């Protein structure tokens, strides 16, 4: 089980470590490529599994989570697997109920309406709360047979906070944006509680077999620079510092860290000053400019193909993906989309994207 010390877990030897090398700024033979949300939604074989299980049942049933994690790897020459789970398991750990409603998406029956509600939040017992997720990682790392590295992940504290306040998806995020300014100190207390759980959960994922970590701060674009520096950046910084300190204490747990802060291109330089190794970029960022800045700060960049462009004719996808990957280059670059793949994307079009990257 995941309780085996990492040095004794007997994980299979690795065949392909391009993503780990690229994240560390080393030269690679081919540009590594993976796709945000690559497991699930757009694959017919996933939809088949989903007929039999509720979403969070898949996440908490290790052999099923493992199966859907491996599904895209059977079709495509991806250079990483990402464990099937969701960012919203962290609010669940903290005592909040989260449902995944068909067609509607995530829903919190009791969101945080006022600071009073934050008293309901608990500090989880990692042994019990994290267990199914860690067992999934351990099983999947073995089942991958060393083919490609396994990515563990979490939501960023600010993004998780917005869901906990909004109670689900939102187009405007007015509830959470109002909350922050109405209750700044209480907001920071909650962000700190989330950060503490995220740190513990990420380190446990690495101890269970995750070889690289991505933090999804998907709602990083909701605040201006000064408030970004107050409510988003310090917590992201804490996560990276915590993981790097753990990695120094126990070198077997020293894994690369990727930060995907969507719509935060206006803070790129501040982000590059943190101790994350790699930065996921959305499609609004000029990748050649990001590359120059990345070289200055010795940071790897990841991205940033517009997921909507996967609806273009395949010749267009091929040309645009090739051009993007050429700019990214064979060191300090990981190819990916600029956000998650859309549910009605053609798997053939995704295949064209992946192949085009590998021809560089
Ligand atoms: O990447 C993978 O394939 C692994 C699994 C994974 C990951 C990394 C899932 C499965 N979700 C996520 C991350 C995630 N979840 C993010 C960060 C990335 C992003 O910005 O897209 C976010 C914001 C969520 C929250 C979430 N979960 C949403 C978005 C809601 C919104 O605000 O619009 C949704 C729709 C989900 C459900 C979900 N999570 C994952 C899947 C396959 C699904 C669809 C569930 C279904 O098919 O019923």
TrEMBL record:
<dbReference type="InterPro" id="IPR000257">
    <property type="entry name" value="Uroporphyrinogen_deCOase"/>
</dbReference>
<feature type="domain" description="Uroporphyrinogen decarboxylase (URO-D)">
    <location>
        <begin position="32"/>
        <end position="41"/>
    </location>
</feature>
<comment type="pathway">
    <text>Porphyrin-containing compound metabolism; protoporphyrin-IX biosynthesis; coproporphyrinogen-III from 5-aminolevulinate: step 4/4.</text>
</comment>
<protein>
    <recommendedName>
        <fullName>Uroporphyrinogen decarboxylase</fullName>
        <ecNumber>4.1.1.37</ecNumber>
    </recommendedName>
</protein>
<comment type="function">
    <text>Catalyzes the sequential decarboxylation of the four acetate side chains of uroporphyrinogen to form coproporphyrinogen and participates in the fifth step in the heme biosynthetic pathway. Isomer I or isomer III of uroporphyrinogen may serve as substrate, but only coproporphyrinogen III can ultimately be converted to heme. In vitro also decarboxylates pentacarboxylate porphyrinogen I.</text>
</comment>
<comment type="subunit">
    <text>Homodimer.</text>
</comment>
<keyword id="KW-0963">Cytoplasm</keyword>
<keyword id="KW-0210">Decarboxylase</keyword>
<dbReference type="GO" id="GO:0004853">
    <property type="term" value="F:uroporphyrinogen decarboxylase activity"/>
</dbReference>
<dbReference type="GO" id="GO:0005829">
    <property type="term" value="C:cytosol"/>
</dbReference>
<keyword id="KW-0456">Lyase</keyword>
<dbReference type="InterPro" id="IPR038071">
    <property type="entry name" value="UROD/MetE-like_sf"/>
</dbReference>
<dbReference type="Pfam" id="PF01208">
    <property type="entry name" value="URO-D"/>
</dbReference>
<keyword id="KW-0627">Porphyrin biosynthesis</keyword>
<feature type="domain" description="Uroporphyrinogen decarboxylase (URO-D)">
    <location>
        <begin position="151"/>
        <end position="167"/>
    </location>
</feature>
<dbReference type="InterPro" id="IPR006361">
    <property type="entry name" value="Uroporphyrinogen_deCO2ase_HemE"/>
</dbReference>
<comment type="similarity">
    <text>Belongs to the uroporphyrinogen decarboxylase family.</text>
</comment>
<dbReference type="GO" id="GO:0006782">
    <property type="term" value="P:protoporphyrinogen IX biosynthetic process"/>
</dbReference>
């Amino acid at each position: 089980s995941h309780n085996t010390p990492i040095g004794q877990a007997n994980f299979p030897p690795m065949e392909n470590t391009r993503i780990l090398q690229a994240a560390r700024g080393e030269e690679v033979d081919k540009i590594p490529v993976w796709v945000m949300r690559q497991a699930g939604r757009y694959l017919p074989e996933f939809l088949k599994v989903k007929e039999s299980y509720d979403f969070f049942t898949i996440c908490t049933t290790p052999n099923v989570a493992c199966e859907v994690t491996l599904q895209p790897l059977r079709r495509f020459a991806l250079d990483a697997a990402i464990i099937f789970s969701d960012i919203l398991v962290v609010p669940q750990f903290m005592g909040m109920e989260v449902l995944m409603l068909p067609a509607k998406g995530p829903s919190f029956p009791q969101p945080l309406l006022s600071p009073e509600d934050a008293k309901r939040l608990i500090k989880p017992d990692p042994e019990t709360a994290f267990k199914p997720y860690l067992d999934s990682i351990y099983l999947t790392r073995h089942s991958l047979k060393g083919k490609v590295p396994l990515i563990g992940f979490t939501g960023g504290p600010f993004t998780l906070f917005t869901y906990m306040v909004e109670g689900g998806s939102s187009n405007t995020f007015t509830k959470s944006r109002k909350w922050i300014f109405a209750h700044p100190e209480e907001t920071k207390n909650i962000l700190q509680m989330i950060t503490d759980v995220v740190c513990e959960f990420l380190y446990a994922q690495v101890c269970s077999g995750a070889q690289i970590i991505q933090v999804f701060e998907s709602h990083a674009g909701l605040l201006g620079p000064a408030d970004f520096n107050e409510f988003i950046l310090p917590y992201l910084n804490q996560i990276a510092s915590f993981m790097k300190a753990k990695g120094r204490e126990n070198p077997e747990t020293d894994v690369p860290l990727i930060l995907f802060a969507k719509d935060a291109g206006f803070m790129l330089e501040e982000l590059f000053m943190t101790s994350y190794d790699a930065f996921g970029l959305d499609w609004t960022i000029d990748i050649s400019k990001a590359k120059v800045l990345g070289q200055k700060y010795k940071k790897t960049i990841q991205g940033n193909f517009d997921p909507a462009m996967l609806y273009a004719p395949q010749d267009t996808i091929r040309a645009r993906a090739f051009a993007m990957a050429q700019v990214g280059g064979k060191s300090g670059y990981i190819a990916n989309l600029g956000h998650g793949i859309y549910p009605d994307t053609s798997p053939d079009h995704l295949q064209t994207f992946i192949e085009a990257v590998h021809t560089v």
